[in-house]
Amino acid sequence: MTKSRSELSQIVFEKVATLLVEAMERGTTSWPLPDPPIIDRDFPPVHPLSPQELIEQGLALLNIDHGMFQHKLNTVVELVVPHRMNLTDDPYKTHQKWLAKRSNMVAERLIFLINNDWLAQALDPFAPDITRWWLSIALLNGLSVGPLGQPIHQGYHMLESIAIGERPGSWHTQPEAGPQNVDWNPQAVIPRITGVMAHETGIEAAKWMLNELEIGNVDRRRLLIEWIRLLLERAELIGPLQLLEILVRRSGDEDDQVAVQVSRCLAKVIDYDKVQGHQLAELLMARDDLMVRRSMADVLTRLFRRLTVDALPFYNQLKADEDPDVLAAVSNTSADLRFLDIDLWAENLLELSKHELPVVRRNIVPSLRDYFETFPDDSRKLLPLLWQDGDEVVRTRMRELLVKMGDISPPKFAARLTDLSAEKCDLEPLWQLMNARKENSSKIWTNWLSGNGQIPQLAQKTQHVSTKQAPDKLPSLDDALDTLDQELGFLD
After folding, report:
1. Residues whose CB is less than 8 angstroms from the CB of residue 20 and which lie 6 or more positions away in sequence, other chains included
2. What is the pTM of this model?
3. Using an 8 Å Cβ cutoff, are 362 and 394 in contact?
4. Where are the domains of the chain?
5. What is the pLDDT of residues 6-51, one digit of tens each?
6. Cβ-contact 168, 119 below 8 angstroms
7. Among 61, 287, 386, 440, which is most exposed with the fewest C-beta within 10 angstroms?
8. How far is CA 34 from the centre of its chain?
9. What is the rounded average pLDDT of the residues 170-178?
10. C-alpha distances out from residue 187 to 101, 193, 323, Å
11. Rounded to a whole number, what is the largest CA-CA distance in the chain?
């Protein structure tokens, strides 16, 4: 072993030992520990006598198995070091200073890998190690301190493994083997594994773990919701773990960030149970916290797609909010009303076009294209109203929309010009944009408005029909570029 590797190994080992003791002390505050999911019938499990005994066993296993520690350390180092070295370089030597500054991070990753290894041995279906079960469940409880990094991803994976009674590190669901796989057997008739199966005793242990987080501090409750958000992907575990009941309770959490995280679970909850998901959304909407209102405005589009008209009360409530961020998110969501009620959508656009907040008026401009396609007569005079708004962003977007309309449908463009002219709107910015795209292109329309011309007609383009024969002569490059310039409306 090189000197650099030996030095880092000693530093990390001491920190891992410290983390182990601290985590075990936290994890054994709730006593007794839950029963193991997998047991050997010939050797019934015996619960440890005291937390101190369990801590001593954990330290003893850590000290005695140096080979396991070095293997896990190598794995962590290979994962975290920057890949800016030759394949023959020693990462311990090349990145000695870099690793030394990040020894705490290395130790945290390593302690989770050790716990993962202990849990895998505890859930071995042929030779379950009961001692390692007590160690792993207590250590998992003690390491689950906050919603960042390893506690989220590694912790969740171990919790899921406990709930289904299978070793972590294995694929709990997998597709049927195909001819592209080495283990494919064309004569085999194997049903495709599409889900997981809850383990009765494992569910009880997982519920104990979730309860420990729920009764813990704010950081542990935030971690709880992060785990639940991932667990909602496993429909088979939602009911047995009573995840919806936990979310209902946490929707009234005193910490608004916990409630915000609950709102991010709404889509999956509604997919699982529409009624309970709707009730959960109502509980969150009843809160007055600013961050919760902003979060509900962000997920409003997802609610419309799943609750349809039942989400309208949420929209109307948030639309009456006074916070600019909430109003900005809600105005972006207003386009979803088109799929529920066309007239309601149009009236809502008219209402938002008169809003005092500029960002609200800006956010409805992208909906105008669909509005003019649905209501070509613009009986609500939405266009003149927004044109006189005075906000340059709104007017810029509308000019671009009108120019495109003029290229596609001159009659509709003429109708819009008539409305703008009748309301005494300044059309000079529109003419400037049209002339910038194509010189003197606005003159035809100004003449028409003054009664001295006709509405321009679109040139009928003949659609090319392939003869499936190669042409005798290809067009010149100049002719092709000229055609492209005419199509795009500007010169290169």
Report:
1. 55, 58, 59, 62, 111, 139
2. 0.81
3. yes
4. 1-81+92-170+198-237, 372-455
5. 888 888 889 999 999 999 999 999 989 999 999 888 888 889 999 9
6. yes
7. 440
8. 33
9. 62
10. 56, 18, 64
11. 103
